[in-house]
Each structure stands twice: as structure tokens, then as C-alpha cells.
């Protein structure tokens, strides 16, 4: 590997690579280093750099105390371990620290060898069959992943609309009035820099926020507001059922696929207390076709629902809804309250 | 008027080795010293987290401005624990509540007097640290004031035992070490709605001892990598020693490994590996400062102060790829690399040792990260503001009536 950055001042914000002469910022530089390391690992493994038995021993040592739920490893990586351990050796080591010990052990091994070989042969056949089937599974999984990637609905993105997602927007007083006096916590997603959470907190509402856009939350993460860099869906699925007094969703639904939109809604309704309030701010479908539409209008295979669709959906989830159109028809606000028992609790 | 805070932690004091217990002491002492808060601690007389033997004197004392109430344990870890733990650890979530409760009691320390005293105390808010032990589980059930849980959780079988579900669900607020810890806890226990903060710990200023690291190790002018912390199989020390030994077989040269900390594992003798045992604070900082790389081989960390202490001195780090919190530190800061196998360990170490520019770059990124997030004055003020908000919010997420 090249010693590309030797002599670089640690305080510099950029580095010049020996190979390209192009200045890189820190993040790109480290990404490149990491990629080079990964490539070198692949190259050495392909070259059979370590004997399989040794590699198996080292992997087992590494994994001995690895966390139960560690998801950092790929199936094909773990399969290397399976392969290395698949052959059960009937030739038992006979080294001994005691005088004559090796001779005794060797004699015992010779006497039992026919028996051990019979047993280990069957075990090796079994482990090899398991290993082979896992390789087939891995291969099929890789193929399936490739096919799915081609038609995959991209993970939901937050639509950022400056005129709608700000404290002075027309719908904000309605929301704060709806939630004022709420005794339970109120979630705002996507919370951005916490502008609505701050407005709720100022009215003594116990608000907190979630946003998958790391950079938005990171700018505020040392502040006093409870803002989290998390996927909205993951968050809702990790909320105790019936725990929240309100859920406000803005910029979340417009660009989500139908399946994900459904899960978001169900998650939000499940998270709400019986007297909880669900608020959805959405762009109108016409805004999706307007000249100033957010780029997601072109990028994702989704579009905002018409207001009436919310009434239909939320009614199915046991909520009665009120829809308030925005003053210029570009957006609208849906407020839902439960009028029937909640869906099956998690 | 500032709230009165009580910390509950099963071990407490400078003689105690343990990440969670050290963290509790640091928060308590910094709240007292820098914010002027009244802080008291409820703890046991134990130093050892396996036996929970009563070693320290029971009763009240003051340590660095913090009032410490120590209580004897009714029982420590009992032999039955090992059978039960072995039986439950393969499918901990399927354990019955009775089995899990028994596991908790067998793990110790059972501290009835501590819980009684806590119940009768006059604190405005109680902070429990960590989730794993009887004083937290039973104490959290007992007190009437707002309760903050500091889980210090790892992805370990015990986290999935049903006895801990109410501990997480009933906490009025949760203080995490890292976002990775928050993700883990929220994945296992559905508590995402609970008020929370990702705080971590502050890094103290480096203590200059004035000696070179190589001098302390007695290795002349050889370069070395360092690993600070309890030398323990569970901390990955044996794995690190094996990996390093093999690295040296394949890369002969002067590089040495220093394992710095109390030794609780059998590490085979190796001419390139130095076990220092316990060293002074000054020696520890000197050893880290002069290392080429600091290695954190442990897969089970909830924070890892030693990683941040290395970055405080602009030393790059290598961490275990399966340890989400330390890996998150590296990914967020750009101050370190990680390894998930011997092959990666070898290549990362090879690269770091041969590339001074890379080391400097990583060290600088790590240093910036520590300056931004983990300096005591700012960090303890955030924590104080968080505790104040918890008090104002009151119990069970309901706003306190004023």
C-alpha cells in the first residue's frame, strides 16, 4: 500500500493524494482508505493468504465475544468459517509434555482410528452438505437482492419545503392549539432543526422530534431539545403502544411509497394514547406538478394523497378526521382523533 | 433552587474498576464541583462485581464533595447463578418472569437496606447506573420521585431478560452513552417515547508524567501500540494478543504491544507483548501519548472512555468492528479504523504503522471530536439541564403541576 499522505500536517483540512494529485477532504480521504483496506482484504483472501484452519481458529476467537445481535457481518463472510470447520479431522494430535505420552497417545489413536474415521466421515459429510446448501442459499440470496434492487422502492425521503416547514406557516397555530394542554409527549417527524418542537415546548407541550436527515439534527444535537437522528418508521415501531399524546407528521408522507405510508400511519396510530391526536401536514397533489415542486416529485414513485384519501384511510384505522386546506390550495392539514378502539396493540 | 440528585450504583469509589461505575462517579462529582448541586450516592460495600463481598465500611462518608451511603448486601452472586445463566442465555427473551427475577437475585447484589433508604430519601431525582443489577431494578420500582436510567447497555443476553422490561419502560428518562446504545435499547425494549439524551462522558485533561511511553515499558526506542483497560478475555485482550503475535510472525520488526491495566486473563508470554498491570494516571497518559495506535479490541463497550482519551492526545484508534458504540465513535469522528477479522486487523495495523500521515489525520479528527462533544464543562451543563427538565416533567411523563 502506498504511503500517500506521509508528511501531511494533521491540522490540514485536505490532503493531496500521490496517485491523483487531487485534494480530498477528510471524509473522502477516509472513505478511500477504508475502501483500499477492504479491497486488500478481498485480494489476500482470494490469494489464500491464510491457511483455512488458521483463519477458522482466528475467526472463532474474534467472534467468541461478539454481540448477539451484531449485523455487521455478511453471510458469505460467515460461510468462510463454516467451510473451514466443515472437515472433522479424525487424526487426533498426539503431542505430549510428559515422557512417553506421545507414544501412548499414538497407540490409542491407532487402536481407535477405524472407529473415529467412521464417525468423523459421517459428520464431515453432514457439515459439507450443510455448507453446500448455505452456499446455494447465499448465491440465490445475492441474485434475489440484485433483482429486488432493480425494482426497489427507495426508502422514504423527507420532502423539504421551505414555505411549508417553518414556524410562520399557516398550519402551525392550528397544530399548537390542537396540542396545547396535552399531558403526554408529542412527536414531530420530520423535525428538522426542531423548529416545531421549540414552538410546542414554548406552549408547555412536551415535544420531541425525529428526523432521518443526519445533518439537520446534528446541528442541534447539543441543544436542550430532544431531537434524534432516526428513521421515522423505526422510531414509531420502537414506541410503546398508546404512549404518545400527539404525532405530527410533516414532509414525511408525500414521498413515501404506499406500503411505507401505510406502516407509518399504523405506527403513528398505535403509538397514540386513546385521546391522542394525529396531525399530518401534506402538500396537495397539485403542488407535486408545480414549477416549484420539491425534487422528490420527479425522483420518487410517489405523490401526495388527495385530502379525501386521508379521511378514508384514517377512518379505517379508527379515527375521525378534519381536513383544513391551506389558503392557496398548495397544501392541507389533516387532524385525526380516535373514535374506535385502537388497532391490535404491539 | 437546584434539584438534589441521588445516584444509585452497585459499586462506587476510586478503587472500583468498571466503566458504568466510573461514569456514575464522574457525573456525580462534576455535578457537585461544576454546577454546585447537592449529590448523594447509594451504593454497596462491594468492590468486586462477581462476589459482591462487603469490603468497604458501611455507613455515610463524603468523597470529593459527594455524600456516599453504603449498605451491606444481603447476598452476592450465588453458585446457582451460573447454572441459571447458562440455561437462560441461549434464549433469554423466552425466560419466564420468575426465572428472570431469580437470575437477577442470583446475580446480586441483593440490597434490601439500600432500597429502603432510597425510598425514605429526600432526593428530587434519582439516577440509576447501570440497568443490570438489583439496586437499579428494585430501586427504580421503589422511589416516588422522577427516575433517570443510565442503562450502560451492551448487546448481551441479560438485556433480553423480561425482568428488565419494566426497568426501561418505567424510567422517566433515559441517558445513553451513544446513539448506538439508544438504537440497541429501543430495538429490544420499546421505549423510544421516553425522554432521553445521548450524553457520554467528559474527557479529563491529559496528565503529563514527563516520561516517554517506551521508557515506562522498558522497550528502548521501539514503536508500540497500546491497549488500555482490564486485560480480560471478555474485553478481547486474549484475541488481541493472539492477533498481534501472529502479526509479528508475518511482519517481523520492532513493533511492540502494551496491554495496560489490571490483568484478569492468561496472556501467553511473548517477547513483543508487555503487560504493565495497573499504572498511575500519569503513566497511562504518557503511554497512550507515545503510542502509534490505541487499540480497543472489546466487542462489548457501551462508551469506551479509553478511545476518547487516545483522541484527546491525537492518537488514532483501532476498534472492534462488531462493537457498535466504538465503531460509531470512529465513523462519526473519522478518528479511527475498525477490524472484523484477523485479515482486517493485519491490514489496518500495517497501514497505520506505515503511514504517518494517516495516523496524524485520524488523530486530528479524533481530537476535534472529543473537543466538540466530550469536554466536561459543557457536557455536565447539558446533563444538569436534562435533569432539571426531568424534575419539571415529573413522574411517568406527566408534567409536574406547578
Multimeric status of the protein: heterodimer
Question: Which two chains form the greatest contact, residue counts included?
Answer: A-B, 66 and 69 residues
* Number of alpha- plus pi-helical segments of chain A: 12
Helix coverage percent of chain B:
40-55%
Major sheet characteristics of chain A: 7 strands, mixed
Rounded mean pLDDT score of chain B: 93
The largest sheet of chain A has its strands arranged as 5-4-3-6-7-9-8
Q: What structural class do helix, strand and pairing data of chain A support? A: alpha/beta
Number of strands of chain B: 14
Low-confidence stretches of chain A: 1-13, 15-22
Supply Rg of chain B.
21 Å
List low-confidence stretches of chain B. Answer: 398-402
Query: Structural class of the secondary structure composition of chain B?
Result: alpha/beta
SSE pattern of chain A, N- to C-terminal: EEHHHHHEHEHEHEHEHHHEE
Backbone shape of chain A = elongated
Report strand % of chain B. 15-25%
**Count of extended strands of chain A:** 9
Largest sheet of chain B: 8 strands, mixed
| Spatial order of the strands forming the largest sheet of chain B | 3-4-2-1-5-6-7-8
Q: How far is the first residue's CA from the last residue's CA of chain A?
A: 52 Å
Question: Summed up, what is this model?
Answer:
The complex is a heterodimer of chains A (346) and B (402). Chain A is of the alpha/beta class and 346 residues long.
Q: Descriptors for this entry?
A:
heterodimer, A: 346 residues, seven-stranded mixed β-sheet, two-stranded antiparallel sheet, 12 helices, elongated, disordered N terminus, B: 402 residues, alpha/beta, globular
